[in-house]
Specification:
The protein is α/β, with parallel strands linked by helices. The chain contains nine helices and 17 strands.
Length: 327
């Protein structure tokens, strides 16, 4: 039976599926089907499909019901997927082992199951993991058409921020100068370069920078990405007045680097400033910090303020997009 489907090249399939799933548009009753190098993803409302995606009728087969971890366990477990690694956050080791066994037995694509063993720690933003099933914490994660190789045990990466990263990348214009101050393995830097920007990316974690360089090559943008290991404050003097766009994704302490961001900013620059704040006053502290660092040299215009995700009870991860225009 013909059903409305989004047709995309196979290599863009997973990123597009995630994007449609975020908008609750994917129809589970029909199978996602490959044909002649394209994937056909059944959707519930063709009119709600984002611009730029092609919708056409396709004879998609009814989906066979997969074996899920919930069916094997008798309850719905909570987990994330990063490439072929499944991530748990369980306090009870026995429960973690039970879930891991069900994940590996199910139809979920997984080579390894890990359980969080610590909070994010240190300047390199790593955490400890218990490997509950499988062996390797290294994986390749696909996000909006880009591939990211990484090792969870060595670098920071959150798949939950995919939609937010894509929101920023969609604003990038061909030829602009973009500076990612805390770049990790490149989830902002690589797609910004793919969008046509010249990117400078720094991180204090040398292993993350090694992966960033590999990811730039993997995604064919190495000629537009300069990856620098070390404290961004030591790099800034080489790029003063250079940036048209700056990403500051270091919640809790990004405000300590605002003077550096202002030094990097060109005559007209957008700063994406990420912060953690109490629900009673989400945006004013970040905006005030940006103004204190940039004024009076720059006129500061807040273009967007939004909540990215929940962080802790009554605390939220937020972003302030501010345009700095030199007076």
């Amino acid at each position: 039976m013909p059903v409305p489907c989004v047709r995309v090249p196979t290599e863009d399939g997973e990123a597009t599926r995630r994007r449609l799933a975020d908008d609750d548009l994917v129809v589970d009753e029909y199978a996602i089907t490959a044909s002649d190098g394209d994937l056909y993803i059944p959707v519930s409302d063709p009119e709600a499909v984002p611009e730029g995606l092609d919708v056409e009728d396709f004879d998609a087969p009814e989906r066979e019901t997969p074996t899920t971890p919930a069916e094997l366990l008798g309850f719905e477990p909570t987990y994330e997927r990063l490439g072929d690694v499944v991530i748990l956050d369980e306090d009870d080791p026995e429960r973690a082992r039970e879930i891991a066994a069900a994940v590996m037995e199910s139809d979920v694509r997984a080579e390894t199951v890990v359980n969080r063993a610590s909070k994010i720690k240190g300047t390199e933003r790593t955490r400890d993991w218990d490997v509950v099933a499988g062996e390797s914490t290294e994986t390749v994660h696909t996000e909006y058409g880009c591939e990211f190789e990484l090792d969870l045990a060595e670098v920071y990466f959150s798949p939950r921020l995919a939609t937010e990263r894509h929101r920023v990348v969609e604003q990038v214009e061909d030829g602009e100068h973009a500076f990612d101050m805390f770049a990790g393995v490149g989830p902002y830097a690589v797609p910004m370069a793919k969008a046509g920007a010249e990117v400078v990316a720094t991180d204090i974690n040398e292993t993350a920078i090694e992966y960033l360089r590999r990811n730039a090559e993997r995604n064919d943008v190495s000629e537009r990405v300069t990856a620098i290991a070390g404290d961004v404050r030591e790099t800034a003097e080489d790029y003063e007045d250079w940036a048209d766009r700056i990403v500051m994704n270091l919640p809790h302490t990004a405000d300590e680097f605002l003077d550096t961001a202002v030094a990097l900013a060109g005559d007209d620059c957008v700063i994406h400033f990420y912060d953690i704040q109490h629900e009673d006053d989400l945006y004013d502290p970040g905006e005030a910090a940006i103004r204190e660092a940039a004024e009076p040299e720059y006129e500061v215009t807040v273009e967007n303020e939004r909540t990215v995700r929940s962080y802790a009870p009554h605390e939220l991860n937020v972003v302030v997009d501010a345009r700095l225009t030199r007076r």
